[in-house]
Amino acid sequence: VYQEHHWNQKKVKECKGRNFDNGRRCCTPEEPCDEGEGDCDGPGDGGQHDGDKGCKGSLVCGSNNCKKFGAYYHEKDDCCEKSSSPLIALPVNTQGLKDRIQDLFPNDKRCRGRNFDKDRCCTAGTPCVEGEGDCEADIDCNGSLVCGNNNCKAFGSFFHEKDDCCIKPEIKTITQPTLNLKCTGRNGVNGRECCTIVGGCVEGEGDCESDNDCKGDLVCGDNNCKVFGSFFHPKDDCCIKPSTSIESVPKTVF
Question: Model-level pTM?
């Protein structure tokens, strides 16, 4: 009993997400994490990533799942967890299996999302056509197409639920910034790194990654920038005043 208690005392999480000093991407291929630790850089983030190499053994990197391991995690932290059963199971010796495989794994699309593409497929240099993904910003789409938000499932069940596909823009005038905003999200001049470049965003600016990207006691929201202007991307996170009803985690942990 003593040995078990002693072992439990030593099993302390080293990686506790972006709200703590070890921060984002604490789980790396060089120093992989145990179950319930984060933040890892997995396939759920899209683009270039570590896959599941930031997790030990057969564990996989989840997507926005750390909250189930502890309330101290940021809502967008990804934690290592046990893998679930495959989403698609193909029957054996089924008549018309070749056609079924083509339906599930079409080869008529160049970019088919994070379930197929290991690296970023939609880029500014090789933009995607309508119905292809996963894109990060409008510049990743061909011509006047724009990057959607978790919309790829409309183009095929083989896409990941968080894949963003290039689509035709809605027929409406996009309001341009009227305020003197330095950071206008991933579609703006400095893109997703703007809050870091300018040394912190003010209220209504984005795209932020954590509270540390915001000035003063402002906090980083979640897909909330559209309330500050239609020129923002649907997935941009903007700095906002903290809610008094939610207990915030200190930025600096001693």
Answer: 0.36
